[in-house]
Amino acid sequence: MCGIMGIYNNTEASTLAYMGLYAQQHRGQEGAGIVSANEGKLFRHMGQGLVSDVFSEPSVFDELQGNSAIGHVRYSTTGESDRKNVGPLMFNVDDIPISIAHNGNLVNAADVRRRLQQEGAIFQTSTDTEIIIHLLAREQGKTIADRLERALQKVAGAYSLLIITPDELIAARDPHGIRPFCLGRLKDAYLLASETCAFDLLGADYLRDIKPGEMLVIDPDGLHTKQIFPETQPRHCIFEHIYFSRPDSRIFDENVDKIRRKFSKILADEQPAPGADIVISVPDSSNTNALGYARRANLKYEIGLIRNHYVGRTFIFPSQRLRDLSVKLKFNTVRGVLKDREVVVVDDSIVRGTTLKKLTRLLKASGVKKVHVRIGSPPVRHPCFYGMDFPTETELLAADHSEAEMQAIIAVDSLGYLSIDGMLNATGADKEHFCTACFSGNYPVIPKGDHD
Amino acid sequence: MCGIMGIYNNTEASTLAYMGLYAQQHRGQEGAGIVSANEGKLFRHMGQGLVSDVFSEPSVFDELQGNSAIGHVRYSTTGESDRKNVGPLMFNVDDIPISIAHNGNLVNAADVRRRLQQEGAIFQTSTDTEIIIHLLAREQGKTIADRLERALQKVAGAYSLLIITPDELIAARDPHGIRPFCLGRLKDAYLLASETCAFDLLGADYLRDIKPGEMLVIDPDGLHTKQIFPETQPRHCIFEHIYFSRPDSRIFDENVDKIRRKFSKILADEQPAPGADIVISVPDSSNTNALGYARRANLKYEIGLIRNHYVGRTFIFPSQRLRDLSVKLKFNTVRGVLKDREVVVVDDSIVRGTTLKKLTRLLKASGVKKVHVRIGSPPVRHPCFYGMDFPTETELLAADHSEAEMQAIIAVDSLGYLSIDGMLNATGADKEHFCTACFSGNYPVIPKGDHD
Amino acid sequence: MCGIMGIYNNTEASTLAYMGLYAQQHRGQEGAGIVSANEGKLFRHMGQGLVSDVFSEPSVFDELQGNSAIGHVRYSTTGESDRKNVGPLMFNVDDIPISIAHNGNLVNAADVRRRLQQEGAIFQTSTDTEIIIHLLAREQGKTIADRLERALQKVAGAYSLLIITPDELIAARDPHGIRPFCLGRLKDAYLLASETCAFDLLGADYLRDIKPGEMLVIDPDGLHTKQIFPETQPRHCIFEHIYFSRPDSRIFDENVDKIRRKFSKILADEQPAPGADIVISVPDSSNTNALGYARRANLKYEIGLIRNHYVGRTFIFPSQRLRDLSVKLKFNTVRGVLKDREVVVVDDSIVRGTTLKKLTRLLKASGVKKVHVRIGSPPVRHPCFYGMDFPTETELLAADHSEAEMQAIIAVDSLGYLSIDGMLNATGADKEHFCTACFSGNYPVIPKGDHD
Amino acid sequence: MCGIMGIYNNTEASTLAYMGLYAQQHRGQEGAGIVSANEGKLFRHMGQGLVSDVFSEPSVFDELQGNSAIGHVRYSTTGESDRKNVGPLMFNVDDIPISIAHNGNLVNAADVRRRLQQEGAIFQTSTDTEIIIHLLAREQGKTIADRLERALQKVAGAYSLLIITPDELIAARDPHGIRPFCLGRLKDAYLLASETCAFDLLGADYLRDIKPGEMLVIDPDGLHTKQIFPETQPRHCIFEHIYFSRPDSRIFDENVDKIRRKFSKILADEQPAPGADIVISVPDSSNTNALGYARRANLKYEIGLIRNHYVGRTFIFPSQRLRDLSVKLKFNTVRGVLKDREVVVVDDSIVRGTTLKKLTRLLKASGVKKVHVRIGSPPVRHPCFYGMDFPTETELLAADHSEAEMQAIIAVDSLGYLSIDGMLNATGADKEHFCTACFSGNYPVIPKGDHD
Q1: Is the peptide bond before D383 cis (omega within 30 degrees of 0)?
Q2: Which of A192, A429, B235, C253 is the most exposed place for a label (fewest CB within 10 A)?
Q3: Which residues of chain C have a CB within 8 Å of the CB of D58?
Q4: Domain A256-429 falls in which CATH fold?
Q5: Which residues of A touch C137 (CB under 8 A)?
Q6: Beta partners for C342?
């Protein structure tokens, strides 16, 4: 998964991009980069790691002059965590520098890439993003925007993308609007971001979402919009509401926090936990879920697990005994709260289930009498081809197991999921308004070719 | 402030030290180091930054062989954040390598240092810890322990300290036991740590606290104890319970979480907030406080502020406008929770008040109607000479201001502190059992000489 | 200028490449790199600086496994000393990894690049070398070698080039054989190098030169040769004999040292220095020249200048006074040898003349009575389009100045150059056998398009 | 061995120190450092490696402000090539910063160190230099100079040393003047250096040598001299003339180049090589020797070996075969010069003989008929306790072998050394004027205690 940020017409463009990426750090922690445009050239600084690591020296902004910039935080969705795949990617098309930042995944990447290579194209990265640039380079057209429009007709899948050239900033979103993409304004500047939390941090105003199938070109003459795909049914990613987006963001025209609270209430109704003494969350992502559940179920909310926020990348410990301790590095249990209690643990979702399994073992070791797990979303049974970094189907806990089996695997006293209908009711939207493929297997865009 | 960790008689001593430091990372984020003893030599790895940064390469443990080790996490208490001050410090005394890790502050450091220099001593660091080694080097005695005992008679203040030599591990604690210091056991190994959370992480058993005025020597013959100062009234630092120690630790013979919950309940009784709609915390340190307050006051606990845990060291932004945004990098407000509400914000303590001031401004900007601040400890009016990294007196918000003035400065609708009596009642202990100097000005050990 | 090295069929291929580059370090000090082929993949290590700097950690060879390898030392000929231009360059052609190392310069690079871009090619570097790969990617053909043959029909200029794929090693040389290129053998391995000194270092046998217009393919079936251009008049770069190649190398079928000695003897005949007391060299490149001149002229050879070999890259000094000292960092004068003497200074060539000017001033300051400069080659009046890193024409001292003017500019008492005829006579070869364009303006291959 | 440099009263003091160290780089390549004094403080930059590596960033000079500075280049004489031993060393004596740079070795270091430790001194390095500071710190006295004078009465051995404090620059030399030490002047500034070549580079005037047993104090009132030891017989290190000092320096009141030429002439007389065709040198240190020998012996001087100046630190090669090639990395043979010739190889000295042995094997492999080695100094039979980095006695080739044995070991056709008398005659000085201990075993100052 990734987060993107664009600024046009502000003398501090790259610093604003930096802060916008900071606000969206949760969308990708593997790498970060910013490209700015100044005097006919593009300048890039990027690296692996968090935004604060990659941009730890203020001097890097000396090289990132100019009034427009784009930024990218990346979490690899394909396993190739190579430095050269960190965005924004930079290319020379006819010796014009061009840079691209992309959130989402193309579903016909392998096919198109193969065809382009047969025609002599030489790829620099293993990203699907690069395909768009090769297509663009081969199209005729008066402007980069014209060429981009034609190129996008040849790809399918999910994309919210930003392109910067020395003169302009271009934004485009796939016909189904699978990933979020917002337009904002700060005085004379236009801003683009995956989530509105970036605008809030900067004190900027949210104007509207980029429409599915829309292309925006921002240049010295202002903002130009064009619907490059006919309007169709949006299929927004419901998982953005469940887990991925920040609770204080507004995406797909709704507040994330509000939707998430509704999930927790319906969950409490659908999956009560009679006999439980307290409700705890798996901090921090499910705090709101747990609090909502507790209130609706009229149970006490307690802080029974504390997350250790100093945990960085730890290396693989030399002995099994030490490796087993790793979950304790991340979470501390508060024994006084837990001992001899029957506890509801609320989490937002289960993907592999590995951490939850370790966590419930830890809770039991702290004296919990019974553990009831309640999940604020349906079972994740199918892979995502649109950019959510789920593992392959075989690693998804729910893919091959019934709820009873899962309860046995994670060794808890009860396990309850939110239903698909309950989830969709919480949104208040039409059932087709969201992509629920990871839960339902109902894919709005069919992947072609070998997807890697 | 600092955290220390010692291990004797385990083949993975330095890895255990690493994990023990990890668990105690909250006690010092400025630097970390480990010294191990192997085949007559000491080996050190240390650096500035977090434990996970300093020990990011597993290969560093190749140099840290041996069955005993000590570790140190440091937060400078004097402003000299020089790399050479990061512990454990290493010296050669008569060409015997010796290393020391120290939590606490000496109060006669300047005097003793000056006298030692007049006698020709050459100091390598600006720490007070080094004084102990110079004193030791000048004392006669059959063993390092004998010499240390004599050396400690010449210093005053707070110290929990660990010394490692190629053959032994020595622990000593000041006569008043100002800082916490615990002894544990993991199979055949003895462990020493500032807080028991380090033992919990390692699956080790907590045996007992090191006694005030006690010296422990652990060598191949086992554990030897000696009371090197006569028993006297302990004066444990109450601020460890208020803020500094981890809630899941047991220090000074009491669970931190339990004491902290009592603080919050007495606070609710002493400082109600009639008219308030909800209670929120300043995450993460005051979550428990806020939850306890809400429950006692019969108010709704909500998550109105979310801490951004990706915030690393940010550099100083180039413009004032951007600098003003910095509090927003750390905290996100959940507008749906806050808008048009009258809110109680619970925090554990106020030192300078700078962050709280920015935070309440942020809350108001998010639509909060009224802000009531409630603090789970009394006003901090006096400096700490025993190792808590408070600023100088002039920077303490409460030093020169009445509560009314403070309420005006941080611009809130009401402000209420826990009373000293309320705080002490919560502990259930004798009033003299704790050092409350930062609140009361009543110092158990008087600083001498210029304190730097 | 550059140096290249290739090895096929030796288990220590990358280490041999390293040593072969070491021997050819004089051909390029700006960057170095090695690519090895192992199990269907290519592995690269490269960087800016000397071979010993780039390969300072033995661990880099752990990543460079495999039985074949190519290497490259680079001195940028176009001013873009960008890290990404350091060779060997790596590409993916149809997802087959391919790497190329190139010595020489193409003369139609700008034209071909522009045309390729119009067809959608996206360039990764600003090198002319990359053009060859794009051409190859667009050609049809059963093998990489077939496609390379077709691609090379579309470029003109100087090239000795090596291409490595997971299975084979390909060598090709331009139709005029402008740059040197040698084939050697070490037991079962084939070796390719710019100069034979690389073979001598490795204890390998020199087999023969790659022929002008020849392509060699070495694969598991052995060595295959093909004349991909009709045989024509070779035009070897005479400047390789004058200055560039190492004196102990054999290039263009002749020993460099032997030719260089002949230059010095003919120089002594053509440009005597009556009245001179001693002959000194500008160490180290003209030592042989100076010794040969002295012997032929029956004058004493002395060591009057000592080169300081510790001089690394010095930064620009803050004051003019210090900048003026810079030549003294490089050369020490031996006053006892020089004082009150009339001195012949022999150098191999003059390009800009900057150092020589500073040097003669230094000699005068050391008490030399008269300075006679004798140059072992004709005046350099024209740019080189084939890879020699001469400056632009306006910076060449001899481009716009008569010998009398040059004598005045470098402020010496006499100045004498070797004649073009004298130079060619020394080689014993046919006049057309060598490219003398930098002296004569007679270019064997005409540059097309904007040369950058 | 080491080189030192001091400047007092120049606004570019640290830059001058840098250049002075550059000129003296041959005296130590293991580490370099500069300390400057500014506004009551000392500032240091140092590191391992060459001057150009350690001072590769001009920004380091921003921290080295001030009008006085000292510098140090180091070659460890004791095997501890630890970073913390790189000079100038810095200490705080009574919280006054003080820094010291030292060329030479103390002979009673172990004894004094042990005594100081018994008194409680804590050593930071394993250098003998640190002893001087501890002694100084324990002495009473009105000034640092007074205390230094008293401290130096307690040490014995060789020292040319520089001490800088915020206010003054102090120079002192041992009673025998074993190592060189020169005073110079550049406008209003005083300069001190091991060798005059540093003054020549800076365009400064050489004033005189520091006298054996003299202490100089330079402060705002000017230069003050004091003879702190009674005048006695100087015992200058003859090896400085033979090999160590730069040929263009003037040390011990004589030009190095001039003395070295005399050595070569007497060598030619004492050790002719009848039947030889040519004379070659082992470049670069013995070029002058070889040329002088050739001229006196009426033989042709030729360049048969070329030193590869790009050779940096190479790592240990993985296979023996590659390790055997290492001498070829350093030296290229010019086969055309050597083949079928009977060759005199002149070198300045033999210590271990390892390189010479490899070199003669290389010459034979290049077709030399006979190799006659002639050495411009007597056999090195005894260790040096005064700072020359000879190996232990057992590693000295001449310690246990007759000349016939040595000839067999290095496998040459003849071997001839300069005699001790011949060497001393060349200097024209009294026999007792020089220390010849490494040749004669006649030590002017007897080492005490365990020398490490």
Answers
A1: no
A2: C253
A3: 315-316, 318
A4: Rossmann fold (3.40.50)
A5: 117, 120-122
A6: C370
Cβ(C331)–Cβ(C306) under 8 Å?
A: yes
Separation in Å, CA of C201 to nearest CA in chain D: 6
Over 50: is that where the pLDDT of D451 sits? no
DSSP readout, D421-452?
A: HHHHHHHTS-GGGEE-HHHH---SS---S---
**Shortest CA distance from B114: residue in chain D:** D94
Strand partners, D345: D280, D373
**Looking at beta carbons, which residues of chain A come within 8 Å of B317?**
15
Residues whose CB is less than 8 angstroms from the CB of residue D33 and which lie 6 or more positions away in sequence, other chains included: D44, D45, D46, D47, D54, D71, D72, D74, D86, D87, D88
Lookup: tokens for A120: 């002599």
Of D12, D50, D58, the CB nearest to C319: D12
Among D444, D274, D297, D245, CA closest to D370: D274
Tell me the fold of B256-309+316-432.
Rossmann fold (3.40.50)
Each residue's pLDDT tens digit, D217-240: 999 999 999 999 998 999 999 999
**What is the arithmetic mean of pLDDT over C60-69?**
94
Distance CA A140, CA A225 (A): 21
Alpha-carbon distance D204 to D10, whole Å? 12
Angle between helices C144-152 and C129-138 (to 10 degrees): 120
- Chain B residues whose C-beta is within 8 A of a chain D C-beta are 91-95, 117-124, 133-134, 137-138
- Find the closest chain D residue to C311 by CA distance: D52
Domain at D260-428: CATH code: 3.40.50.2020
Q: How many CB atoms lie within 10 A of CB B310?
A: 19
- For A254, the closest chain B residue by CA position comes to B336
pLDDT, residue D433, reads: 94
Percentage of chain C lying above the pLDDT 70 cut: 94
For the segment C121-133, the average pLDDT, to the nearest whole number, is 94
Tell me yes or no: is domain B2-232 CATH 3.60.20.10.
yes
A2 carries an active-site annotation: yes
More confident residue, D80 or B312: B312
What are the residue boundaries of the structural domains of chain A, listed by start? 2-232, 256-429
Task: Please answer yes or no on whether A122 and C95 come within 8 Å at the CB atom.
Answer: no
Using CB atoms, pick whichever of B26, B301, B334 lies closest to residue A248. B334
Among A52, A310, A334, beta carbon nearest to B247: A334
Average pLDDT of the residues in B5-34: 95
Whole-complex ipTM: 0.87
Weakly modelled stretches of chain A, pLDDT under 70: 76-82, 311-323, 448-452
Q: State the chains in contact with D (3 or more Cβ–Cβ pairs under 8 Å).
A: B, C
Do B46 and B32 meet the contact criterion of CB atoms below 8 Å apart? yes
Q: Which residues of D touch B117 (CB under 8 A)?
A: 93-95, 137
pLDDT more than 70, % of chain D: 94
B451 pLDDT tier (thresholds 50, 70, 90): very low
Look at residue C356 in the predicted model and tell me its pLDDT.
93
Name residue C333's amino acid: T
Task: Check pLDDT > 80 for residue C291.
Answer: yes
Question: Encoding tokens for residue A85?
Answer: 């795949």
For domain C259-430, give the fold.
Answer: Rossmann fold (3.40.50)
Query: Average pLDDT of chain C?
Result: 92
Sorting pLDDT into bands at 50, 70 and 90, what band is B452? very low
Neighbours of C, requiring at least 3 CB pairs below 8 Å, are A, D
Quote the mean pLDDT of chain B.
92
Strands A342-347 and A370-375: parallel
The residue of chain C with its CA nearest to that of A139 is: C120
Mean pLDDT of D5-14: 97
Higher pLDDT, B321 or D332: D332
Q: Which chains are adjacent to chain A, needing at least 3 Cβ pairs under 8 Å?
A: B, C
